[in-house]
Structures are given as structure tokens and as C-alpha cells.
Amino acid sequence: VQLVESGGGLVQPGGSLRLSCAASGFPFSSYGMSWYRQAPGKERELVATITRTGGNTKYADSVKGRFTVSRDNVKNTIYLQMNSLKPEDTSVYYCQRVPDSGSWGQGTQVTVSS
Question: In whole angstroms, how far apart are CA 39 and each of 24, 43, 71, 88?
Fold first, then answer.
């Protein structure tokens, strides 16, 4: 299993970013996928989950209405569109298979700051 996250960066409060996660090494369309994040000194937090076909999604209360998870089963990629970003969204963001593969990528850093 290989998961490669990208798209992070520095953005001002209220701004937007789109994260991508390229997956390989397993039958992508057979698995749900999730986005997690981890801020320094904090536990890893589940942010969003999407089912195999993309027909159902779930979000943490802290991001509901601001973040949107989607997937492309042809490109073996999931996305996280993040709008109205807040300083508290600053974290390293990771994607993961559902159920957890036990293998994590390097993550992508998102910093929300003026």
C-alpha cells in the first residue's frame, strides 16, 4: 500500500486549498478512504470519510460545511477541498484506506496563518 498526499501549503484565514492523495498497491475502488489530520502535540483526528463509490461521505463536526471529500476511481485518487480555512485547521493531513492499511504516507502540511 502506498499513499502520497500533496497540495498543502500556507494560506490566509478564509482561504482555500485542495489536497490530493494518490493511492496504489491495492484495489482502490474496493475501499472506502479517509482523511486524517494531526497537529503538533495532538492526537490524529479523523476529518472525512468517503465510501467506495463516493456515494456517501462523513465529516468531523469541526469541518462540516467547509470541507468536501471526493474521489476519482479512474485516477486512484481522493481529494479534500478545504474552504473557509481557520488557524485551527493547521495540521499535517494524511489519507488512509478504510479499514486502516497500517501504512501511512508522509502527509502534507497545511498552515493557516495571516
Answer: 26, 7, 24, 9
